[in-house]
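Priority: medium. Attachment 1 of 2:
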């Protein structure tokens, strides 16, 4: 029955492999469940309600992806878009949180239109193959940076920008031991190395915190979830004024633009492995992704996107929507065991995220770095993502540099599209407008 529903044999996978990979996916992104409320909570709503909303949003969005596309791509509120909602929309543009949720709904409508008109597919097809590879590598290194930052293996430094963390800190030490464990297991090709590392790191984390006299903040195992902010977006529509028109446009543009490239980056990272080069499969994924955008408004949280962290499960063999069943079950459990889950800090999965970057470096051999026309846009895609801590900025600077280079070296003997695709030029201009709006 499962093979018939999820097409396991056709995807050369098994029930065990899928479900275990789904567990890895969940623990790779579960830190978002706790960080998202910290960023979004305000006077209109509480951390507890946003925690519930984040889980319900992730559950519904991932379920949509499972049913419509049968791909192991988990979705949850984006760590970039939550900052846009909390800081850009609410603080800088002056909208209430309820109004911000209304604007995410309007953005979702625009996002769906872009998907139904196949514009998103056209954008993906307009990107040169070498830059597609570079974006995938850049996202891998971005995920690595997330792991390094979350684990405090790398910390900020006012003199050198970044520096090694403090190994007398139990969180940093846990991450270091975890990294050593997963390197040894993967070099020795031990089956289940990620799951073994995950379990071992949870135990090590608790033991080290106790040994260092750290408070592990144990408050129990089970707690009842608080109701999410269901009616917020409805209330928001009733309080807009004519003077808000320009700011409404800016907010919708920002939400839609960032969501477009956040999801595009995650699709690029997995497209070869999940056969998303097939346009039928790609259209299903993009439709599921765009429909999932609507869930955030209803559950009172920031927009959901395909998570780059979902590659951790894909890397471990997830090929179908069956892997998402593990994610869905664990999300439901997370509603009721938040006190227990909060004991598992982001350092527990940091080594898994770090290894993702290493695995994506294999694609470097497909890029001709001796050709500056290729090397420069590739450089921005690969290095600006982790260094600027933004997938969007990596894509933006690579597109802008690609446009400039190909226009100044324009070959009149070639058709226009062979020099540079018009969509890349248009998007480069849009990126420039976006950066101007940030000033």
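Attachment 2 of 2:
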């Amino acid at each position: 029955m499962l093979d018939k529903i999820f097409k396991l044999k056709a995807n050369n996978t098994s029930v065990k492999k899928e479900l275990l990979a789904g567990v890895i996916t969940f623990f790779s992104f579960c830190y978002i469940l706790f960080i998202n409320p910290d960023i979004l909570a305000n006077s209109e709503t509480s951390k507890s309600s946003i925690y519930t909303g984040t889980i319900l949003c992730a559950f519904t969005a991932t379920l949509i992806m499972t049913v419509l596309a049968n791909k192991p791509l988990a979705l949850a509120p984006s760590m970039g878009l939550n900052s846009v909602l909390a800081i850009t929309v609410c603080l800088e543009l002056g909208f209430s949180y309820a109004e911000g949720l209304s604007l995410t709904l309007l953005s979702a409508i625009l996002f769906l239109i872009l998907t139904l008109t196949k514009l998103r597919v056209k954008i993906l097809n307009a990107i040169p193959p070498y830059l597609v590879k570079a974006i995938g590598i850049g996202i891998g290194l971005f995920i690595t940076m997330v792991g390094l930052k979350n684990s405090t293996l790398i910390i900020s430094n006012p003199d050198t920008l970044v520096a090694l963390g403090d190994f007398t800190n139990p969180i940093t030490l846990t991450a270091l031991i975890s990294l050593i464990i997963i390197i040894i297991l993967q070099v020795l090709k031990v089956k289940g190395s990620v799951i073994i590392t995950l379990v071992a790191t949870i135990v090590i984390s608790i033991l080290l915190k106790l040994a260092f006299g750290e408070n592990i903040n144990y408050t129990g195992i089970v707690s009842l979830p608080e109701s999410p902010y269901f009616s917020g977006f409805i209330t928001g529509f009733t309080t807009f004024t004519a003077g808000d028109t320009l700011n409404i446009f800016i907010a919708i543009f920002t939400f839609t633009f960032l969501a477009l490239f956040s999801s595009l980056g995650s699709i690029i990272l997995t497209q070869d492995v999940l056969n998303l080069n097939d346009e039928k499969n790609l259209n299903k994924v993009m439709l599921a992704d765009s429909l999932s955008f609507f869930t955030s408004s209803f559950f009172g949280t920031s927009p959901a996107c395909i998570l780059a962290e979902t590659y951790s499960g894909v890397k471990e063999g997830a090929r179908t929507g069956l892997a998402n069943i593990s994610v869905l079950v664990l999300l439901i459990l997370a509603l009721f065991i938040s006190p227990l889950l909060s004991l598992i800090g982001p350092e527990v999965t940091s080594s898994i995220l770090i290894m993702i970057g290493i695995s994506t470096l294999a694609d470097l051999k497909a890029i001709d770095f001796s050709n500056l026309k290729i090397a420069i846009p590739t450089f921005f895609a690969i290095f600006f993502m982790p260094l600027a801590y933004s997938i969007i900025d990596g894509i933006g600077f690579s597109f802008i540099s690609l446009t400039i280079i190909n226009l100044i070296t324009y070959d009149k003997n070639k058709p226009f599209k062979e020099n540079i695709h018009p969509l890349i030029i248009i998007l480069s201009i849009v990126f420039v407008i976006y950066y101007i709006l940030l000033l």
